[in-house]
Amino acid sequence: MTDRGLMLGSLLLVSLCVGAAAMDSRLDLHWELWKKMHEKMYQNDVEDVRRRDLWEENLMLISQHNLEASMGLHSYDLAMNHMGDLVGHFY
What is the spatial distance between Cα 79 and Cα 65, in angstroms, rounded to a whole number? Predict the structure, then answer.
């Protein structure tokens, strides 16, 4: 393995660990149920962690928006759907 390959592998491992550390373990079951409901399967653990991070960000945005809606700041509620593991420019 070249020095560059070793460095890239190390960076990938570090980013995976940081992403995993940032995830809320209380949402593990919710994440697994959501993937099952929407028949989500990812190529590898790295992609699973990346998608989980996006899903958690979207879940928090939805929760924040709905809290604000309950306070009269918005006229509609949001809900999680099959696109919850994507970023805005993909849909």
Answer: 10
37 vs 50: CA distance, rounded Å: 19
Q: What is the C-alpha to C-alpha distance for residues 64 and 38, in angstroms, rounded to an integer?
A: 23
Dist CA 56 CA 31 (whole Å): 9
Per-residue pLDDT, averaged over 49-71, amounts to 98
Helix (H, G, I), strand (E, B) or coil at 28: helix
Range name among 34-38, 47-51, 54-58, 85-89 with the lowest pLDDT average:
85-89
pTM of model > 0.85: no
Cβ pair 25, 71 in contact under 8 A: no
| Mean per-residue pLDDT, 51-76 | 98
- Cβ–Cβ < 8 Å for 31, 42: no
CA atoms of 1 and 4, how far apart (whole Å): 8
Question: How is residue 32 written in tokens?
Answer: 């697994």
